[in-house]
Amino acid sequence: MMIKQMEEIMEIRELEKKAWLIRKDIIRMIAAAGSGHPGGSLSSTDIMTVLYFDEMNIDPAKPRKKDRDYFVLSKGHVCPALYTALAHRGFFDTPELITLRKLGSRLQGHPGVNKGLPGLEASTGSLGQGLSIAGGMAMAFKLDGKPNRAYCLLGDGELDEGNVWEAAMSAAHYKLSNLCAIVDNNRLQIDGAIEDVMNVNPIPEKWEAFGWNVICCDGHSVKEIKEAFAQARECKDAPSVIIAKTVKGKGVSFMENKAGWHGVAPNPEQEKAALAELDEKEKLWEASVR
Amino acid sequence: MKKTELPKIDFDKPKLESTREGYARGLVKAGERNPNVVALGGDITSSTKVSLFKERFPDRFMSMGIAEQNMAATACGLALAGKVPFFSTYGVFASGRCWDQIRTSICYGEANVKIGGAHGGVSVGPDGATHQALEEVAIMRCIPNMRVIVPADVHETEKATLWAAENKGPVYIRFGREAMPIITDEKTPFNFGKIAKYKDGTDVSIVACGSLVFDSLKAAFQLEKEGISAAVYNLSTIKPIDAEGLLEASRTGAVVTAEEAQVMGGMGSAVAESLVKTNAVPMEFVGVLDRFGESGEARELMHVFNVTHKDVVAAVKKVLARKK
Q: What angle is formed at CA B248 by the lines to CA B307 and CA B186, rounded to 5 degrees?
């Protein structure tokens, strides 16, 4: 028992360590691109880290393997978090991250599968469509009695889109228990707070009413995210949604909880300051877990 | 270009069958040949005749309710996971209600999704403008990676549907509600991407698609009696357009296009875009001209909207007056 608990703690530390790397690369690549979406990329970093380094059955050596789990980034604008997770997981080399948004890059401003980036499953960017895509995948696996699972990350602002609720209705209708949605609940969208722009609250109750297995967690606690995914797997008669409470811009104090950092790249000074802060916080974290 | 041999047609009393029957038959055949073929329905499954597939393969039919955006993007997910999904509903909704899902989720990544757009044209009749699809060709063909087929009769619709099932990538097939004259048979070849010559002629070329192929043939035989030799072509594949075939067709020196859809952006526009680069002959366009449809019986509406053989005859005479 003791050994198992120790192993779990070590696993969580490994994931937290990865998340620091990913946060820093997100800052670097968006700064190099001169445009992009740091706020939501940083709020979804810990979720993405757990998905790609713990939860999903994937193999960077065989990105198209038949029994793999599929991930759809419905909030396509936070692709820096996805690209970074894919690169660090070994789907492609990390130096390519710096080509984000550049002409000829496989790392398009919003994900496009036609560019051939290994590990990327769906083209997204026009909000509201990803949950339907993941639902279609889950439906295909069920039809064939396959063990694959489908995952989909949505933004809370994205929940304004009617297509999301059409997808929510049909996934529950077809009891797609192999589908797991995650809502990056950072409470901000471009024009401001979600309550002010278009009040989508109460979020958990809405999903419950649509027939989903609803799990709430701290979207920056690797431990809680892991547990939420485990809980989702246990549900056998409904799709699951994890409402992950997050902070937009998490990790970089001047970006945190600021709608203004939704879609603006840091300038060179801001990049330097952000990286210095993340380095400092990582050191403190290392000291705390030693 | 060799003329395609057609069975004998009685222009006064042609045999009739709706193209939606052809779509359903093609879909069932495709389902028999490939277990990965699945169908999604938007609550009008009997009306699109996809009910035939549902009866034959109940486990491979997905009822999606009245939610076209979800139906389109779900089809994309099914395709990305290895299925060959066909989603079907009325053309106005199949092309318009989920245009962005078709563009971004399906076409951008070339997902292997097939779209059946029912109730094309004013011949839908009494349901009126809201349900008469006239803009699908225009709004589907402008999306990269999309292929657009408007078959001429029930047999061609069946063959086009089978072709779509067996070839990768997005395809939009337009078919109609009303019983339509049968002009081909089981043996008539369907060559995707190729224009087919259905009648020889030397004075003018009529390029038609869908229900207007029959009307164009009828018009051409009538013109023959007046001493005008009109060739008739079936352009069922509107995208990709057969530029070479059109160039050959244009050698008569005058072209009339005929379709039961908006000319603006539709097949007529596509032909003009092609010919203006290769052989800019005088052209006239038979089709719906920047108007909404309205309620009425199919035959009345075809007359009111100027999409009958009489309108083709008039357009031929008009274009011949301009021919050099």
A: 60
